[in-house]
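The record is passed on directly below:
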Amino acid sequence: MSLLQLKNVSKNFLNDVPSGISAIDLTINSGDIVTILGESGSGKTTLLKLIYGYLVPQTGEVLYNEERIKGPTEKLIPGHDEMRMVTQELTLNIYAKVFDNIASQLSNTDLAAKAELTLQTMEFLRIDHLAEKKIVELSGGEQQRVAIARAVITEPKVLLLDEPFSQVDSILKRQLRDDIERLAKFLKMTIIMVTHDPNDGLTLSDHLIIIREGKILREGKPMDLYFDPQYAYVANLLGKANIFQGQSFLPNSHQTFAIYPHHIHLSFDSGQSATVKGTHFSGSYQEVEIVVDGKVILVHDTDFLSLKHGDQIFFEISHFHPLK
């Protein structure tokens, strides 16, 4: 069911470099985890602030349950009452305890219920062991979890997250992704998240929005966008794709194609001939750069072939993704 709608929304800023968003049309459904993905300066955070009501559109309107969201010129405290937003500038009392930071969002009408709900929220986000610590004593990732707990304890309908994984290491990131997914399901909460990391959008989202230079380039299910990127920008962003046109190994010399590195298989005995430029170990695979017709192709080799600069190698491509 449609929860949020943006109709022809624009908000631009007068800087040396043009910034903001232009003519955005977007529908967000209730209960979805939505990721807005793009490089720095693409307009992601501007879009998030417009949805929350921190900014006023220059054109168009933002609707929540078919009612226009009021901006800061119309509300004493900016932000929609049924939404909470966690920004990169965490608004925590750094000299207060974790428990007090979270509990402060609730009224004092029932102190026992307030304490119980605070403890439940901390347990849900795996920070109950930090209850007596001061914020200043926590890591950046722990502070991020406290900020999210503080935002969700009042059970908002929509949670907005601006780069929620930016201060979290890879192990905690996986846990936090799981917690965000549980929040959406358990509290039936719509979550809208901004990130520059494609893995966050691909692994967590129900709906993925690719934004570039203030405009939505592609949107849809993560798998659909990955396997049908349509644009070189999308293919590069989601999978470090090789982009080629006119090469002899392509099925159509007049069509531009994206080729993901893991769709290229290397061998010593069959396929198209290439020359190895270099290799780099990357854990579950090695990155191999090969040269064909003067063009460099990036390959993810899971067989860990013994290769060095100048070696002759053969390659075969399993999937070609045509681009506009």
